[in-house]
Amino acid sequence: MRIDLHTHSTASDGTDRPAELVRNAAAAGLDVVALTDHDTVRGHAEAIAALPEGLTLVTGAELSCRIDGVSLHMLAYLFDPDEPELARERELVRDDRVPRARTMVGKLQALGVPIDWEQVARIAGDGSVGRPHIAAALVELGVVGTVSDAFTPAWLANGGRAYAEKHELDPFDAIRLVKAAGGVTVFAHPLAVKRGEVVPESSIARLAAAGLDGIEVDHMDHDEMTRARLRGLARELGLLTTGSSDYHGSHKTVGLGEYTTDPEIYGEITRRATGAFPVPGAGGPRPA
Fold first, then answer.
1. CA distance 76 to 136
2. Angle between helices 84-95 and 97-110 (to 10 degrees)
3. Distance between CA atoms of 215 and 239, rounded to whole angstroms?
4. Which helix (H) or strand (E) holds 33?
5. CB atoms within 10 A of CB 217
6. What is the DSSP string of 55-111?
7. 49-80 pLDDT, tens per residue?
8. Which residues have a Cβ under 8 Å from the Cβ of 19 and sit 6 or more positions away?
9. What is the pLDDT of residue 287?
10. How far is it between the farthest Cα atoms of the chain?
11. Residue 155 confidence class, pLDDT cut points 50, 70, 90
């Protein structure tokens, strides 16, 4: 089985519509794909309706969190999307995205970048506006060469010159809320230092003690030494280890299925979940 547990669609900051994403996942030879848009489940219905035969969808979201002044992302899988307290928190984060993005556009303008809100809004379309949309605008303007190049201290990285904070969940609350909704939590790209400051291993240990299920190890922003370090930490703390593409379509160079999760780990995630269940595809033919 080929399993990719971290992807994004136009429901947040990817470039593939949810239906297109699942078709592309099947074409890439995946057996299981998780749709984990930022702080929203809005793309799930479209993805399920278009799910090709032979591909299983894991519903989820990537929750924006902050601990001790450091931002982190928490992947939440197979939770009940209608659980009211978790739904309210997702809404608070989403509602803060536009004011935050406008603040970052203003900071870029103050730095002499000829960016405007209309350009960013056009790129975001119906998605939840975020830093990748602003980064794409910087690429359009020739300020940086790629979206990844915008995520540096000079521009949009955490604490960067044009960075602005947003409403974020306390990760201990996130774990509690996801658990209460029957879901499973995995700390996304925990040591992606190129994105900015990362949480210390002592904080990961605290999160594990609070019920964190796993950490994302095999990711494009982790080199081999970092992956080995994280595997050792996971063994020490009793955490599951996952691998994922963090696919965003054309916003990033990584492809679907470039990094994958071991089937045994996937099985354990599904065993722990009680809020929702993986959806087997029947919405359309699997691409040849």
1. 26
2. 20
3. 7
4. strand 32-35
5. 27
6. -EEEEEEEEEEEETTEEEEEEEES--TT-HHHHHHHHHHHHTHHHHHHHHHHHHHHT
7. 999 999 999 999 999 999 998 989 999 999 99
8. 46, 47, 49, 50
9. 53
10. 52
11. very high
Would you call 52 helix, strand, or coil by DSSP? Answer: strand
Q: How far apart are CA 194 and CA 72, in angstroms?
A: 13
Using CA atoms of 38, 41, 43, 44 in order, give the dihedral in degrees to the nearest 10.
130
Residues in Cβ contact with 3 at an 8 Å cutoff, skipping those fewer than 6 apart: 30, 31, 32, 33, 260, 261, 262, 263, 266
Q: Considering the chain, what is the average pLDDT of its residues?
A: 94
Q: Which helix (H) or strand (E) holds 279?
A: strand 279-280
- State the SS3 of 11-32: CCCCCCCHHHHHHHHHHCCCCE
Whether the Cβ atoms of residue 197 and residue 204 lie closer than 8 Å to each other: no
272 three-state secondary structure? helix
**Cα distance between residue 23 and residue 184, in whole Å:** 25
Helices (H), the chain: 18-27, 44-49, 84-95, 97-110, 117-124, 131-140, 147-150, 171-180, 201-209, 224-237, 263-272
User: Closest Cα partner for 34 from 62, 13, 53, 11?
Assistant: 62
Q: Which two tokens stand for residue 260?
A: 């994958």
Structure tokens at 216: 């994302």
Query: What number of other Cβ atoms are within 10 A of residue 85's Cβ?
Result: 11
